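Quick one, tokens below. Sequence please?
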């Protein structure tokens, strides 16, 4: 009876350690989070890393005027692509109109 309790306790400790390890590895692989928000002109996104705001993009990047993304999904896709580029290149990325179109953005 006592051995079963010890085994269950060890199993629980191992499970907790496994979950913590997976979480730590995931955070290192994906240090950027994309938050989508609604604006008066549509949708925008922010990219946050380690609790600090890195990019606040309320409009479609590289476009004249104050035009937000048409949908929450558009803003999320572009924000995730920008975060991928930052992680890969370790620099502030640029997006071409062709890239925006491939991501499903309707450019005015």
């Amino acid at each position: 009876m006592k051995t079963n309790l010890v085994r269950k306790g060890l199993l629980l400790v191992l499970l907790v350690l496994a979950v913590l390890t997976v979480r730590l590895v995931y955070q290192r692989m994906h240090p950027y989070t994309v938050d989508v928000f609604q604006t008066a002109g549509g949708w925008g996104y922010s990219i946050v890393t380690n609790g600090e705001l890195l990019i606040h993009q309320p409009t479609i990047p590289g476009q004249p005027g104050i035009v937000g993304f048409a949908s929450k999904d558009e803003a999320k896709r572009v924000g995730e692509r920008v975060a991928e580029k930052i992680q890969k290149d370790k620099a502030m990325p640029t997006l071409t109109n062709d890239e925006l179109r491939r991501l499903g953005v309707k450019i005015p």
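The longest helix spans residues 2-29. The mean pLDDT is 87.
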